[in-house]
């Protein structure tokens, strides 16, 4: 029987791995590759803040797993993994129900020879009182679209009834001034300008009150301080209120209360601080996990307790050698997918596995169409600080690299052309 590689999770890392393995082992008939995902389409997660603000129409940038599988010699199985039987080498998928609760697809099992888990992460609200109930999260396309619809509703309401009390104001609070929170704040400011330009001026851009709340002493705490400073000042120039050293203690329908006693009124509240891996990994047939449910892996990306199970991306606790783990970033998921594509082919040939070493190529923070700030690291250039249009160009090219891994260079160029044409025929903002 041909060796069966099952990849669970078709996100930034999983879809790249399935595509690479399909084009190599799958095409040559050396292995059967199956990708399992809970959804039918993939959208690159770093675009979700743009979906939330409406500056990106997710249905235009999504990738259909069924078609990708057909074009790249792998199989796709829709389903949500909920269990594992290591002795029998099978994974379990939940039953699927329709909106009325009628079972459409029964619970089932898929057998594997090699399993790759790439199920990503979710936002961690650290059990903060009221956060799960009153905050929105940006973990999936559905959540980002929900935020966009709520934002649009407020605009439409204010546009239709400009005389109603408070109609001309929206208070939005974002918890967490990491990359996601900062990028969302800048994107929302940009969306407010576009809404006004399209005539939805019941809420004037200066009346969109954006507050970014950070527990740590500075914005983008994971990046060097010299990047935090220009990011902070750009946000303030855009009129975004930035509160640092302000851990949120409680969230209610009316707003958020910080540990230092401030109350920030907000009708829309987004929690964008911290991550944890999905809950089902915690009890996965004895695999080792850390306190945020990530599966502990060896440098070969094999699970510490099962050599037939590999883990990549946000759901892997992969040591970097300095006591820290590889950060949950798209570039790490991409590097690990590239390494595993080679390593799993070597494994079939009986050769030793490759070891993963994280290479930090720097980080770029998009401040919407206004600018970007960040640093790039390379062997020749060292650590270079970038700002403005050049940084913005590098930022956009990260997504283009992901597209190239999935579609190849020629189709990516066609997609870029189609995006450019789309910009001249469609509104710059999703207004529905
Ligand atoms: C708003 C936002 C902005 C970001 N911006 C950046 C950025 O600018 N730069 C950067 O480097 N990183 C950024 N990140 C982080 C980056 O998106 C992640 O590090 C990256 O997507 C992780 O890739 P992954 O393959 O591990 O998981 P994901 O891309 O999260 O994919 C996980 C996949 O697993 C599927 N799945 C989950 N559970 C199951 C299950 N039980 N069964 C089947 N399928 C399942 C999901 O449907 C999904 O397709 C951002 C994240 C967010 C949320």
Automatic annotation (TrEMBL):
Q: Name one GO biological process term.
A: aerobic electron transport chain
* Keyword annotations from UniProtKB, A to Z: FAD, Flavoprotein, Oxidoreductase
Supply the name of the protein: NADH dehydrogenase
Question: Where does the FAD/NAD(P)-binding domain lie?
Answer: 4-337
Q: What are the recorded GO MF terms, alphabetically? A: NAD(P)H dehydrogenase (quinone) activity
Cofactor(s) recorded for this entry are: FAD
Q: Which domain of life is it from?
A: Bacteria
Q: Name one Pfam family in it.
A: Pyr_redox_2
Q: Which family does it belong to?
A: Belongs to the NADH dehydrogenase family.
